[in-house]
UniProtKB/TrEMBL annotation, chain A:
It comes from Dyella marensis. PROSITE patterns: ABC_TM1 (PS50928). This is Molybdate/tungstate transport system permease protein. Keywords: Cell membrane, Membrane, Transmembrane, Transmembrane helix, Transport. One of its GO terms (cellular component) is plasma membrane. GO terms for biological process: transmembrane transport. Belongs to the binding-protein-dependent transport system permease family.
From TrEMBL, chain B:
Keywords: ATP-binding, Nucleotide-binding, Transport. The keyword Nucleotide-binding applies. Residues 1-212 form the ABC transporter domain. GO terms for molecular function: ATP binding; ATP hydrolysis activity. The keyword Transport applies. This is Molybdate/tungstate transport system ATP-binding protein. It holds the Pfam family ABC_tran. SUPFAM superfamilies: P-loop containing nucleoside triphosphate hydrolases.
């Protein structure tokens, strides 16, 4: 006797075709990378090691202000409705929407040596052009709106009732946030951190304008292409993936495991 | 404990009554009952006593919301220990769980507990905070109907044992039946207060009778002066004999107990009996009801045991069993 087909079992059917096509299209450039890499003469250009250190180190540092400032903003946005809220939403959208190169120009005009903020900060000893702080500044602007959007959604998923129950159990709003809101939003917040990391690490346009030096991986890829050629791009790109992928991949897997 | 609260938003509401033992505030959905609990707990803007002006974390209330709201990321004992501090918090939490008979499930996650078990954990969590007032929002709503009465009995026993005044808001007449004290709310006002016995004996209005779950609460109008009155029942297109002191033309809610309704064979029916048709039978271990269709209305009848329903039954309603309450025309 043949076992009866389980009617509840998901049958891929027609939807499998476009899904497979989407996967194939996603994979195509990386298959290209695999084929184009000259594995026998795999070597790094001068300064590639420094670029990896700059990218990883400063991206990690950039995550600190992004999380420290973005989390309270995301929570506030998730929990409060005020008049003119659309202005805040519009500001976030504009930050997301601005082409990275244009964002770099805007940052330069504000924080550069001739910009109003840059002028003041420079007098205080903080140079925001072609410096480590400038690099982190560009990453901060590139990743913050993504982090805030994702973290806001994470906080919106926390039942407000549970935060209120914590209050009735004698917790201050701050302790309720730490002991209830944060743990319950942790999966979404992990995803937000992963997203911010990816955005900060991969940022090219804004970094190119305000911090051509110190060179991180994206700018160094561009420099290698200009100075040496395509062959000098691929090894650094492999290192970029190896360095950038573990954190978001691990966070993503943790979230999936938790959800399944 | 005296409760006196005034809420302006999102609806205007004023409630003033005494909470003693297990007090049930009975009202239909949309009366603002949950809002009142939120106000007492300090979760919405309102003025009133007790706790006036205090932030929620300084109000000594144990709040059990609808659905119990256990923290899903904490085990049962961690939920109970939430308001406890110090090295002995686990030990103390276990004692509270012991009290509500849940010590064996202390390590469980809330999602793996039944509705009744969750409620007991939520009660232990609320009691561990050592409140001076317990607030329960629709405590019967998330309970399995089969075990509900038992869970409810245990809940009330625990509340009595804790010796803390408890205010439960509900629309469930079954909960009202087990209260020490009943407060009835209609039209966002308190309309009657008393023991369940007193309120059941003398419901203050048709609205109260409906809240108490009484069957056969209908609308009608008094026709004629006291002494020679009839009750016009438009839904059944019938006119019934009644004895009230209400003036001619008064719009009324009226009620007749199902056990008082008489069933007759058409041949032996009194002159003013109403024609009815059988609709459904409701059989329970305690009582049997027949649902009888009279025009556009349904009348519940509790027939004597072993009664054989005639093919075309007629109903008569003894005038002394009919109770009438005047209603405001716009209500």
């Amino acid at each position: 006797m043949t076992p009866a087909a389980d009617p509840t079992r998901y049958r891929p059917g027609l939807s499998a075709l476009p899904a497979a096509l989407a996967l194939l299209l996603l994979a195509t450039p990386f298959v290209g990378l695999l084929l184009a890499t000259d594995w026998r003469h795999f070597g790094f250009a001068h300064g590639d090691g420094g670029a990896v250190r700059v990218s990883l180190g400063y991206s990690l540092i950039a995550l600190l202000p992004i999380v420290a400032l973005g989390t309270p903003l995301a929570w506030w946005l998730a929990r409060h409705r005020v008049r003119g809220q659309w202005l805040v939403d519009a500001l976030l959208l504009v930050s997301l929407l601005t082409p990275p190169l244009a964002m770099g120009l805007l940052l330069a005009s504000m924080y550069g040596p001739y910009g109003p903020a840059g002028h003041l900060l420079e007098r205080a000893g903080l140079l925001l052009t072609n410096s480590a702080p400038a690099f982190i500044l560009a990453q901060f602007y590139a990743a913050l709106p993504y982090y805030v959007m994702a973290a806001r959604t994470a906080f919106e998923g926390v039942p407000r009732e549970l935060e209120q129950i914590a209050l009735t159990l004698g917790y201050s709003p701050w302790r309720s946030f730490v002991h209830v809101s944060l743990p319950l939003a942790r999966l979404g917040l992990a995803a937000a951190v992963a997203l911010a990391w990816v955005r900060a690490l991969g940022e090219f346009g804004a970094v190119l304008i305000v911090a051509y030096y110190p060179q991180g991986i994206p700018v160094k890829l561009w420099v290698n292409l200009q100075d040496i050629g395509l062959d000098a791009v691929y090894p650094l790109l492999w290192v970029f993936f190896a360095a950038a992928l573990p954190l978001p991949l691990a966070l993503g897997m943790a979230v999936r495991r938790r959800l399944s | 404990m005296r409760i006196d609260y005034r809420i302006e938003h999102p609806v205007a509401l004023h409630a003033s009554f005494e909470v003693a033992g297990f007090t049930v505030l009975l009202g239909a959905s949309g009366e603002g009952k949950t809002l009142l609990l939120s106000a007492i707990a300090g979760l919405i803007a309102a003025r009133g006593e007790p706790f006036d002006g205090l932030p929620p974390q300084q109000r000594a209330v144990g709040y059990l919301p609808q659905g119990h709201a256990l923290f899903p990321h904490l085990r049962a004992w961690e939920n109970v220990a939430f308001s406890l501090r110090g090295a002995r918090r686990r030990e103390q939490a276990m004692q509270w769980l012991e009290r509500v008979g849940m010590a064996g499930l202390a390590e469980r996650w809330p999602a793996s507990l039944s509705g009744g078990q969750q409620q007991r954990v939520a009660l232990a969590r609320a009691l561990a905070r050592r409140p001076s007032l317990l607030l329960l929002d629709e405590p019967t709503s998330a309970l399995d109907p089969v075990t509900r009465d038992e869970v409810l009995a245990e809940l009330i026993a625990e509340v009595h044992q804790a010796g803390i005044p408890a205010l439960a808001v509900s629309h469930d007449p079954a909960l009202a039946a087990v209260a020490d004290r009943l407060v009835l709310m209609h039209g966002r006002r308190i309309v009657q207060i008393g023991t369940p016995e007193a309120v059941h004996a003398q419901p203050a209005s048709g609205a109260v009778a409906r809240l108490l779950g009484l069957r056969n609460v209908q609308r009608g109008r008094i026709v004629g002066a006291p002494g020679a009155q009839r009750l016009s029942w438009p839904e059944a297109d019938a006119s019934l004999r009644v004895e009230t002191a209400l003036p001619d033309g008064t719009a009324v809610d009226w009620h007749v107990p199902p056990a008082a309704v008489r069933l007759h064979d058409p041949a032996a029916a009194p002159g003013d009996a109403i024609a009815a048709s059988f609709e459904l039978r409701q059989t329970s271990p305690h009582r049997n009801y027949l649902g009888m269709r009279c025009g556009k209305a349904r009348l519940w009848v509790e027939p004597p045991a072993g009664y054989e329903l005639p093919a075309a039954p007629m109903l008569s309603l003894p005038p002394d069993a009919i109770r009438c309450w005047p209603v405001e025309e716009h209500a």
